[in-house]
Amino acid sequence: MKYISTRGRAPALTFEEAMLTGLARDGGLYVPEAVPQFSREDIAALAGLRYEEVAFRVTRPFVDDSFTDADLRDAIEKAYSGFGHDARAPLVQLGPNHFLLELFHGPTLAFKDFAMQLIGQLFQQAMKRRGQRITIVGATSGDTGSAAIEAFRGLNNVDVFILFPHGRVSEVQRRQMTTPDEPNVHALALHGDFDDCQAAVKDMFNDFAFRDEVGLTAVNSINWARVLAQVVYYFTAATALGAPHRSVDFTVPTGNFGDIFAGRIAKAMGLPIGKLVVATNRNDILHRTLVTGEHRKEGVQPTISPSMDIQVSSNFERALFDAYGRDGSAVAQLMDELKGQGGFPVSQGALQALRETYASGRASEEETAATIRAMHARTGETLCPHTAVGVKVAEENIDPARPMITLATAHPAKFPDAVEAATGQRPGLPKRMSALYDRPERVTEVDNDLGRIEHLIRETRAK
Ligand SMILES: Cc1ncc(COP(=O)(O)O)c(C=O)c1O
Ligand SMILES: N[C@@H](CCOP(=O)(O)O)C(=O)O
């Protein structure tokens, strides 16, 4: 299995190389050269298996001989052993044809743990073999950062720097990043929005001298291994509801497009998915693109679903690569236009291809709050605001012929203010996290200045 760049001008890599490389050296994102195919029998055989076994069977063909079967199994077992639910990703019924896929039972209470816990294990194996030391620099709107810190804290061959937008994450999210006391963890509060944080990370990758000097590595969904780990729960959910004998739809609260792109990969592997519905908050660039054909960023607006306050949606590049017939130079040109002119028109052919795979919708702030309130009253389920965006959009897209599965991407207790404002009840953190509010915080404020951030990283990381 080889991985190629969406911009067509970087060397093809193995799974392990792509995982350790992160952003391709031409600025693109790695994708598999060809997606492995599962037959109906392969898919039927997954029904009822443990999550870990499904994870092994789904990821195995992508991982090639970078990891032995035994090493991959070991990584998967360790990755999910700390989850607070035996099913790992349980399904809960919301209505006659509507299900929630709860992805918040991992250590940091968001779906990011599914991938981050696994890549944490795979990185450790690969670094041990190679005797390498690395510097992880990640951008977060709240959840990736805490999941990355949890997966890599305390390791002596890794420094973790997480850039988050100052004042734009919830208090729980901030404390999850600023209270770990391991010396290899560094929380950086950037004066800017998430797009600025992510642009800074990509600019660091494109500064080859810096990148090579510090051994820069990505744990955002820039990293293909992150996306791959998220493919697994599409299979567990769909087979639990009758796949491959019937198809299912998914609605995905979307920001950086990694989670929904994992669904697209599951579909390309043969999983019978009807619609993949992109659900956005008022930062609705992806919904606007699918409706109008114009991909144009506006300023990031703060919302009660802050993890989705994103306009430059990194993985949309992977979707464009497919929609433009895997033409790397066309994608490189579009990305230049996005950076230089703030957007671009999607060609008619590409738009049609995107619409064949993705539907979309948006939820305003009021609609998000109303959905939290209504679901709480109607079903007793407490939704986090991101999940509520998904549920609102899913309800507009339910086809009576197929079950709709909405991804519940975070635990409501990560966003207690928004949930309390909507329901009158304040969701509590699990007991194991009760000290979060008492521990001292450690954070460095930084301006949105690449040179200064690189200088800080150079000076702070262990040599
Ligand atoms: C809670 C939550 N929901 C949804 C999303 C959107 O996921 P993606 O960026 O993969 O589209 C994020 C962040 O990415 C998130 O943290
Ligand atoms: N919502 C994310 C943004 C980064 O997404 P990623 O999947 O590319 O890591 C977050 O919570 O940080």
N-C termini distance: 34 Å
Shape: globular
Examine the secondary-structure arrangement and name the CATH architecture of the domain at 91-108 and 224-423: 3-Layer(aba) Sandwich
Mean pLDDT, nearest integer? 97
Largest sheet: 6 strands, mixed
**What percentage of residues falls in helices of 4 or more residues?**
40-55%
Q: Structural class of the secondary elements?
A: alpha/beta
* Uncertain residue segments: none
Explain the overall architecture:
With 463 residues, the chain is α/β, with parallel strands linked by helices. The chain has a domain at 91-108 and 224-423: Rossmann fold (3-Layer(aba) Sandwich), CATH 3.40.50. Helices cover 45% and strands 15% of the residues. It has 19 helices and 15 strands. The protein has a six-stranded mixed sheet with strand order 3-4-14-9-10-13, sandwiched between helices. β3 (91-95) and β4 form a beta hairpin. α4 (69-80) crosses α5 (112-130) and α16 crosses α18. The radius of gyration is 20 Å and the shape is globular. The protein starts with a strand and ends with a helix. The mean pLDDT is 97. The structure holds pyridoxal-5'-phosphate (PLP) and ligand LJ64HWYM. Pyridoxal-5'-phosphate (PLP) binds at residues 110, 143, 221, 253-259, 307-308, 386, 409-410. The site of the ligand N[C@@H](CCOP(=O)(O)O)C(=O)O has 13 residues, from α6. Its cofactor is pyridoxal 5'-phosphate. Keywords: Amino-acid biosynthesis, Lyase, Pyridoxal phosphate, Threonine biosynthesis.
What keywords describe this structure?
463 residues, alpha/beta, Rossmann fold, five-stranded parallel β-sheet, binds ligand LJ64HWYM, Thr_synthase-like, pyridoxal phosphate
